Amino acid sequence: MTVVALSGGVGGAKLALGLYRALPANSLTMIVNTGDDFDHFGLRICPDLDTALYTLAGINDPEHGWGRRDETWTLMRAMESLGGDTWFRLGDADTALHVLRTHRLRSGASLSSVIDEIRSRLAIAADILPMTELAVGTMVDTDAGEIAFQDYFVRRRCEPRIRAIRFAGAAVATMTAQVRAALACETLQAIVLCPSNPYLSIDPILAIPDLRAALERRRVPLIAVSPLIGGAAVKGPTAKIMAELGIESTPAAIAAHYAGLIDGLVVDSADADAASRIPLPVFATPTLMKTLEDRVRLARFVLARARELTVRGRPR
Ligand code: GDP
Fold first, then answer.
1. Which of 152, 196, 206, 250 is the pocket-test mutation for ligand 1 (most atoms within 8 Å of CB)?
2. Is the predicted pLDDT of residue 263 greater than 80, yes or no?
3. Residue 314 pLDDT
């Protein structure tokens, strides 16, 4: 069984790790958001791709979810002493990846090939694919003006109120050849929307016109996992953003957001009663992923339910 998972950062990578462990080797392809990517101190930083790499390699920081475990912070301390910006935390080992990536990109390599090189060095038996080679930047229109994603998310800790979100460059971006091949693969059995932030992490992927069209043309079920548990986000600003955009933070709103794209939705047991308001197959199960076992169990549940789904009315 080959499975494609669309993912943002920490929340998405939790389920992706479960899928990675639940499936045979080389059966998972992650398509990862690059709308959060930015340049900092001249380095190209790709937070969601790096979270995917570190998580699947088992070297992520278990406390934060992002960055590397057993990290040291000499660079940041030296930076601070020299008066440099420290709002974006760069661990010493993490920075090696940013330096290497920037060097390779400047030498003419594609982002896909750089990520694949690192994936191979980290012995990850899954494909980790940037959604596009072109620069797409998530821009957040807030009560403090329009700001770039990292400025909103990290520097300002999601405090400004969001009015709208746009993905600069997405309309003219195209999916990579590897993404196209993964979505057209003969052995593909299911596509999973990980429980990432729909507005900041999944929407940039869906904003790439040919990628969205390929998802709409799919011949395999597409199943999403809700990032909400009992109306609240496990972590991060998903529920806050929904409130600011005037959207109820319910699984029904998540289903409506993905309307026309998904064939089924997995919700937390706490939200089981939402099913009656959702015009799609809804499957309730505990979705809080604290341990590796939680991740693998949820992944197995998602894969089993995907097998039961039909693709938007068309029999499989
Ligand atoms: P980020 O880019 O690092 O913020 O991460 P993502 O966008 O991939 O994930 C953020 C979302 O993951 C939030 O909306 C969380 O509610 C959701 N999330 C995190 N952990 C869990 C979990 O254990 N279960 C579920 N259902 N959602 C989770």
1. 196
2. yes
3. 45
| Nearest of 252, 199, 254, 195 to residue 225 by alpha carbon | 195
Is any atom of ligand 1 closer than 6 Å to the C-beta of 55?
A: no
- What pLDDT, on a 0 to 100 scale, did the predictor assign at position 65? 85
Please give the Cα distance from 86 to 26 (Å, whole number): 38
Binned at pLDDT 50, 70 and 90, residue 315 comes out as very low
For 184, the 3-state DSSP assignment is helix
Question: Of ligand 1's atoms, which has the minimum distance to the CA of residue 225?
Answer: 26
CB 234 less than 6 A from any atom of ligand 1? yes
Q: Please give the pLDDT value at position 316.
A: 40
Whole-angstrom Cα distance, residue 246 to residue 244?
5
pTM for this prediction: 0.97
Q: Which CATH class is domain 2-142+167-308?
A: alpha beta
Closest ligand 1 atom, residue 229 Cα: 26
